[in-house]
Every structure is written in C-alpha cells, then in structure tokens.
Amino acid sequence: MTVPTNILCPNCKSILQHAGQTMSCANGHSFDQAKEGYINLLLANQKKKANPGDNKLMIDAREAFLATGSFDFLLAELESTIDSMNVGTGQAANIKVLDLGCGSGYYTRNLLKTGDYNKLGIDISKAAIAKAARKDKTSTYLVGSVFDLPIAANTVDLTINIFSPVDISETIRILAPNGYYLKVVPAGDHMKEIAELVYETFKPHTSTITAAINTNPKLQFIEAKKLQKSITLRGSNLINFISMTPYFYKFGENHLKELQALAVTLSFEIIIAQRTETILPCT
Ligand SMILES: C[S@@+](CC[C@H](N)C(=O)[O-])C[C@H]1O[C@@H](n2cnc3c(N)ncnc32)[C@H](O)[C@@H]1O
Ligand SMILES: [Zn+2]
Fold this sequence. Notes:
By secondary structure, the protein is an alpha/beta fold. The protein has helices at residues 56-67, 72-83, 106-110, 126-135, 168-174, 192-198, 209-214, 235-243, 253-258, and strands at residues 17-19, 22-24, 30-32, 39-40, 95-100, 117-123, 140-143, 156-162, 175-186, 219-234, 261-275. The protein is 26% helix and 28% strand. An 8-stranded mixed sheet has the order 4-7-6-5-8-9-11-10, with helices on both faces. A 3-stranded antiparallel sheet has the order 1-2-3, with no helix packed on it. The chain starts with 16 loop residues before the first strand and ends in an 8-residue tail after the last strand. Bound molecules: S-adenosylmethionine (SAM) and zinc ion.
C-alpha cells in the first residue's frame, strides 16, 4: 500500500507524513494506525454522537448482500464509465482516487484493480472503515467526514461517492483541475416494492445533486445515466438487503422474518461532473 501524500492533519491542516504505523505533521500531531490498518482522523468535535455513521448491523448486512453479486451490474457499469473518462490526464502513475462515504470499501477495493491508482476511502463510521481496511491492504482507509475532508486542495483525480452524503464545495476544493466527480444515487423507483410494504403511499426518491452541479460554475456536468434491473430476493438475502438501509427500522422484527420472497426494483442514477476551474500559478 502506498499511503497518499495529500492527507492533512485534522488539527492544523498541514500535510501528514507516514512513517511505520504512524502519521504525523510538522506541528507534532500524530495519529496511530489501528490494528486493522486504518487511521482515525475524525476529531471529537467533528462528531455529533459517539459512533456516527452506519452501525455494525447495517455494515455486516451490506457486506453479506454485496458478496452475493446482486449489485455487480452497477460495479461493471461504473468500471466501464470510469474507463471511458480521462482520469488523471497525462499522468501514468499515482492517480489519486478518493471514495467518499466508502462504507466497508466494496467499491473502493473492487473498482480500478489494475493500473497505478492510489486509492483512499473515507467514512465517518469506524466500524465500516475497520471492515474495509481488514479486507483491502492495497488502499488507504481513514475515518473522517465528507463535510470536512482531511485532504489537501486540488489533489484528487477522481472522487467517487456512492449512496453517501456529500458536500459539493468541499469536494470541489479537493478535486484537481479537470478532476472528476462520479456520484451514484438511488433513482426514483429504487426499492419501490420495499417502500410500499412500510408506507401507505410510495414517494419516489429525488436528488438535488444535478441541480447543485449545474448551478456551480466550478463544475461541469458531463453525463447522467440510469441503470435499472428487477431481481427476486429470498430469505436472508432479502433480510440483508432491507437491513442495510433505513427501511429496516420501519419493519417490526416479526414482519421482517415473515418475508419469504420479493421481486425488487434496483434503480440507480450515475452522474458525472468535472472540475472546470483553472488554478492560477503563484506569482
Ligand atoms: C449507504 S452507505 C454507502 C456505503 C458505500 N459507498 C457502499 O455503497 O457500499 C452510506 C455511508 O455513508 C457514511 N456516512 C454518513 N455520513 C457521513 C459523513 N458525514 N462523512 C463520511 N461518511 C458518512 C455512512 O457511515 C455509510 O457508510
Ligand atoms: Zn497538525
């Protein structure tokens, strides 16, 4: 694993240097690697609760569900989408990829497996990052928030952000000039059949991300595409699928156990934008 050189100290915002099991800055702040291999850069004052982000139940359910390959059509589409982009133009090595809200790292570790990519995953959930770091020794994993990224300005060639929150200005700050932002959101009818089990009326998902991109002069909207499939889920696979989402809390335990099989709509929107702003050289 090559630890990226664009990681910032969360205390003083200077660059962190990696040596042995520790990262430290010139001002004497240091952060030890956990036994799983990740580094926790989330300060106590950046947390609204003791253990922010997805909990262990959701993380284990998502990992078990993703391991069945049910979302691999999305993975394949993302891989070919990234292939068709010009990520890290003119740069043969050390292309910096950041997975924002990476969870247990399913996309971080499975995308861009070949080529000289320097991959970094960030999530606010310590349990998710611990799992990601245990499973993937080639990427770097940090506990941190997408709203205050411990990443130097203008350094990231590709930011992926799959079903996770984002702060657009913070993302633009860390993107290199011409760097790409690839976002995946649930499209309107994603998991419609599950929503219909717990709500009287189904309200389609909506996303404000395209509007946020289109109104931001520092980002150029490139493309949006929809990907849809219906699958029938049964038994523990169906329970894991529900448990990895907030719908889980709408089901009573018995109601969940009674479910046998269900045909479910999977529907995603993949949105691509590129940072337009030119960085002026220092004079
Ligand atoms: C639906 S999961 C998606 C995880 C992963 N991208 C995937 O698709 O497998 C959303 C993730 O966002 C994380 N998250 C929530 N708020 C966050 C924040 N402020 N900063 C970083 N991650 C956050 C959660 O902990 C969770 O792992
Ligand atoms: Zn520092």
